[in-house]
Design goal:
Length: 453
C-alpha cells in the first residue's frame, strides 16, 4: 500500500511540473475548461487580489513559486487594486493611472504588471486578471474607490488592457471585482469594459472571460451576464460565513441554458473571521474550506478557488490589517487548508476529468445539506468510475447501478493527506454500503469506485 501511495503522490507532483503553455477554451460539452489542444484543465485558483499592488518583484516570485509547488493553476489578481490601489504606489513605487484617469495608464506600473504575468507564465501558471476592483465603479458601503469608471472610459480602458495582453497565453479575464450591478447603468459599464477587452484581444474567441460578483441568492455572474457573448464561464462568490449548502449555487448554474462552466471564485477564506465576527465565531479552518471545495467540485464545478484572509490582502508587519488577519501572508502560505487544495486537483486528474457529472441519485437515505453531513457524489458519464465525498466519515449507502461491470475496485482517498489506499475488489450489488477508514469531526473521505474491466 505504501508503494501505491508514494507512486500516486509522485505522479501528481510530476504533473505539476509539466503544466502546458497553451491558452484555454471551453470544452466541447461546455462543462469544463480545456487547453487549446483539447486536453483537460482543472481550475485551482488562489485569491491574491493585492499581488500587483503590494508585493515587490522578489516577494511576487516567492509567492508564485510557492503556489506552483502546491499545485495551483490560476492566480487571481487585480490591476487597479482594492486597498487604495489608485493612490498608494505599488511595491516598485508606481501608481497605475495618471491623474486617476482610466484612459491614461502609467506605463511604469503596467510594466510591473507585465513582469508578474511573465513570471507566472514561466512557472506554468495562469493569471485570473481583474482589470479593476469593483469599487472603482461604485464604493457601496465599503471600498476606497475613487469611483472613476463610466461606460465610455470603461470601453477605452478595456481595449487598452486587452490589446496589451492579447498575445499572452496565460490570461483568464475576470471582470467585476466584488460588486453586483445595481441597475442597468452598471450593467452597461461592465458590458462596455468586456466589449473593450474583447476588441483588444481580437474577438470573443481570443480571450476567456468571466465576472466576479458579490454573493447572490442563486446565480452569480449568470444573474446579469449569462447570455452575453463575452461571458465564457460563470463565477460565484459565496462569502465568508460557513454554510453547508454552497454547492447549490453550482447546481443552479449547472442547470442553466445555454450550458456554461461554473465555479466558485471566492468561497470562505481560511482564517477569516466567520461572518466577520471574530469575537463570537472565531476564524474558519482547514476543515471548513476543504468541505466546500469537495462539495462544489462534486456538484459539477469546473474547478475551485481557495482564499486565505492574510494572503488576499498580502498582510505584513507595518501594514494596516483588514478584518483581523492571523498571520503574515508568507506564514499563511503554509496553512493546512491551502496545501490541501492541491489534493483536490490530484484526485480530479487521476480519472478522465471531462467525463465527470454530478449524480446524487447514487446516495441513498437522508442527506440534508443543512445538517452538515452532506454526502456528495460525482461519477463518469460512461459509468467507469465514481467519487463519493463524506465530510464526517459516515457510512455510505449507495446505488451503484450507474456503474458498469460485475465488480468494483474500491479505494479511499484521504483529502487531508492526498493519499489513496490500495484498491479492494468487490462484487457489485445494486445497493452497497461502504465504511470509511475513520469517522468523526474532520475525518472526511472520498470513496473511489472503479468499474472492473
Amino acid at each position: 500500500m505504501r508503494l501505491l501511495i508514494l507512486l500516486f503522490l509522485s505522479l501528481s507532483i510530476q504533473a505539476y511540473g509539466q503544466l502546458k503553455q497553451l491558452p484555454l477554451k471551453v470544452s466541447d460539452n461546455h462543462r469544463f475548461l480545456v487547453y487549446s489542444d483539447g486536453s483537460p484543465f482543472f481550475y485551482l485558483g488562489d485569491t491574491a487580489w493585492e499581488l500587483f499592488h503590494r508585493l515587490n518583484h522578489d516577494d511576487a516570485e516567492y509567492y508564485l513559486q510557492k503556489r506552483k509547488e502546491q499545485g495551483y493553476t490560476v492566480i487571481q489578481a487585480v490591476v487597479l487594486a482594492e486597498i487604495d490601489g489608485l493612490n498608494t504606489p505599488n511595491g516598485q513605487g508606481n501608481k497605475p493611472l495618471i491623474d486617476n484617469d482610466p484612459t491614461k495608464p502609467n506605463e511604469a506600473y503596467f510594466k510591473d504588471v507585465d513582469w508578474v504575468i511573465q513570471k507566472a507564465a514561466e512557472k506554468g501558471l495562469f493569471i485570473g486578471l481583474l482589470p479593476t476592483w469593483g469599487d472603482k465603479l461604485f464604493k457601496s458601503t465599503w471600498g476606497m474607490g475613487p469611483e472613476i469608471f463610466n461606460e465610455k472610459n470603461a470601453a477605452i480602458y478595456g481595449e487598452y488592457i486587452g490589446k496589451r495582453y492579447k498575445d499572452q497565453w496565460n490570461i483568464i479575464w475576470i471582470l467585476g471585482g466584488d460588486r453586483n450591478p445595481r441597475n442597468e447603468s452598471d450593467i452597461a459599464v461592465w458590458n462596455a469594459m468586456a466589449e473593450g477587452v474583447a476588441k483588444g484581444v481580437g474577438g470573443y474567441d481570443k480571450g476567456l472571460m468571466t465576472y466576479h460578483p458579490q454573493p447572490h441568492q442563486n446565480g452569480g455572474s449568470s444573474t446579469w451576464f449569462h447570455r452575453e457573448p463575452w461571458l465564457d464561464f460563470n463565477m460565484h462568490q459565496t462569502g465568508h460565513c460557513y454554510e453547508n449548502n454552497r454547492h447549490e449555487k453550482i447546481t443552479w448554474d449547472y442547470n442553466l441554458t445555454p450550458t456554461k462552466p461554473t465555479l466558485d471564485g471566492e468561497p470562505l477564506y481560511e482564517e477569516h473571521p466567520l461572518c466577520f465576527n471574530l469575537k463570537e465565531h472565531g476564524v474558519s479552518n482547514a476543515d471548513n474550506v476543504r468541505k466546500l471545495a469537495y462539495w462544489q467540485v462534486f456538484a459539477g464545478a469546473a474547478g475551485h478557488t481557495y482564499g486565505c484572509h492574510a494572503v488576499w490582502q498580502m498582510y505584513d508587519e507595518g501594514r494596516e490589517p483588514v478584518n483581523s488577519p492571523q498571520h503574515t501572508w508568507k506564514e499563511s502560505l503554509e496553512l493546512t487548508g491551502g496545501r490541501q487544495m492541491g489534493y483536490v486537483r490530484k484526485l480530479m486528474e487521476s480519472r478522465p476529468m471531462l467525463e465527470r457529472i454530478p449524480d446524487q441519485s447514487m446516495v441513498l437515505g437522508e442527506n440534508d445539506p443543512m445538517e452538515g453531513y452532506y454526502i456528495s457524489a460525482n461519477r463518469s458519464s460512461k459509468g467507469t468510475f465514481a467519487f463519493v465525498y463524506t465530510p464526517f466519515g459516515r457510512v455510505l449507502n449507495l446505488n451503484t447501478t450507474s456503474l458498469k461491470g460485475a465488480s468494483l475496485n474500491v479505494s479511499w482517498f484521504n483529502p487531508r493527506t492526498g493519499e489513496m489506499t490500495t484498491a479492494v475488489k468487490m462484487e457489485k450489488q445494486p445497493e452497497m454500503a461502504f465504511m470509511p477508514p475513520s469517522k468523526g469531526e474532520g475525518m472526511d473521505w472520498v470513496l473511489v469506485l472503479d468499474a472492473v474491466g
